[in-house]
Amino acid sequence: MNRSPVALRVRSGTFRPPTLETLPAAVAANVAGIRARTRSTIMAVVKAGGYGHGAVTVAHAAVAAGAGWLGTTSIAEASVLRAAGLAVPILTWLHPSGIDAEAAAAARADVAVGSVDELGALIAQAAPPVRIHLHMDTGMSRGGCPRDRWDELIGLAQRGQQARRVRVAGVMGHLPLADRAEPAENAPAVARMHEALKAVRAAGLGPRVAHLAATSGTLNDPATHFGMVRVGAGLVGIDPSGTVAMHGASRLTAPVVHTAAVPAGTPVGYDGAYVTDRATHLGILPVGYADGIPRELAPRAGVEIHGRRFPVAGRVSMDQIVIDTGAESFPAGTSATVFGPDGGATPAVQDWARWAGTIPHTIVTGIGPRVKRSIA
Ligand SMILES: *Cc1c(COP(=O)(O)O)cnc(C)c1O
Question: Which ranges carry the Alanine racemase C-terminal domain (predicted)?
């Protein structure tokens, strides 16, 4: 129990170690499902390492399935996609270290600009002209230019474009109710977006590609689609509104590394938070909260082995979890599926989110670096 599972793994070297497998065919199926719901261009958002599934892998699958753009938060991420041979337009919008115009040009990345200061700093750089998307606050107050400064931003963009420092290529908003399926609730943001487009056009900067919706708006509300939709969660099978069934795009497996037969009344793990109510078998899986298994789990949490669900017993440790396998004793090396798209006894990412009281996004983006990656 107290032996390090990592050391065990290295010594034995015969098991398939904990592995997160990305399923590009599922990404392609999700893009096909999205295309059936919109005629707008699809931007595949692959920030946070493609929501933990591998940015390059997800980007290739999405583009092959018909996505016309890619989206990331930083120019550095855009450069990685270019180096991997992805040629479609890329937009970046957060710029954790400010916008480097030189780097944007080198990556052929469009950048979203959400404030007068940010645009001013960009124009001041002696660098090749940069394609920009004016990011207007459409009601979220998280990035985006506030309504009362739109005229200033648009005026500065006009002058920047005349001076050939920037080229206005798009207008961007964001829906504050990203996990709702109720179109009426999006109406104020949609109206704001139309207002922004009108202002940009009136300044002689339009028409440009306009984009507002993320996954939920794309799946549930055509009024939010405009010329392009920015889909991230949906690529990997997550509908934030929980209304549309999509294809899970990853599978996390871990081997049983140790098995023990224990009598009734045996406390398991830290604090003895779980006590066996009968003679049973316990299996150790070498994944813990350092690998992204949520520490705060409902008692229903479990994993799949050979088509059956077995509960997680007791506390999640840093490096391991214990499962209660009842009458079954699985030999070391037996593969358990922590989550996957398979249905039946196999938990989905959404099940883990429910057990942990969180959203599926945090599960898939939280899988740690010790877990091996593979592509199906
Ligand atoms: C992450 C993000 C998206 C994608 O959102 P999903 O709900 O994951 O599809 C779209 N736009 C912006 C600005 C984002 O930050």
Answer: 249-376
58 CA to middle of ligand 1, Å? 15
158-188 pLDDT tens trace = 999 999 999 999 999 998 877 777 888 899 9
Q: Look up the pTM and report it.
A: 0.94
Residue 270 appears among annotated catalytic residues = yes
Distance from residue 104's CA to the centre of ligand 1 (Å): 20
Alpha-carbon dihedral sign for residues 48, 51, 54, 59: negative
Q: 5-20+249-375: what CATH class?
A: mainly beta
274 is an active site residue: no
Interval between CA 175 and ligand 1 midpoint (Å): 9
SS3 string of 73-116? CCHHHHHHHHHCCCCCCEEECCCCCCCCHHHHHHCCEEEEECCH
Residues in the chain: 376
Q: Does domain 24-236 fall into CATH 3.20.20.10?
A: yes
Q: Where are the domains of the chain?
A: 5-20+249-375, 24-236
Ligand 1: lining residues by beta carbon, under 6 Å: 45, 47, 93, 174, 178, 214-215, 230-234, 240
* Residue 2 pLDDT class (50, 70, 90 cuts): very low
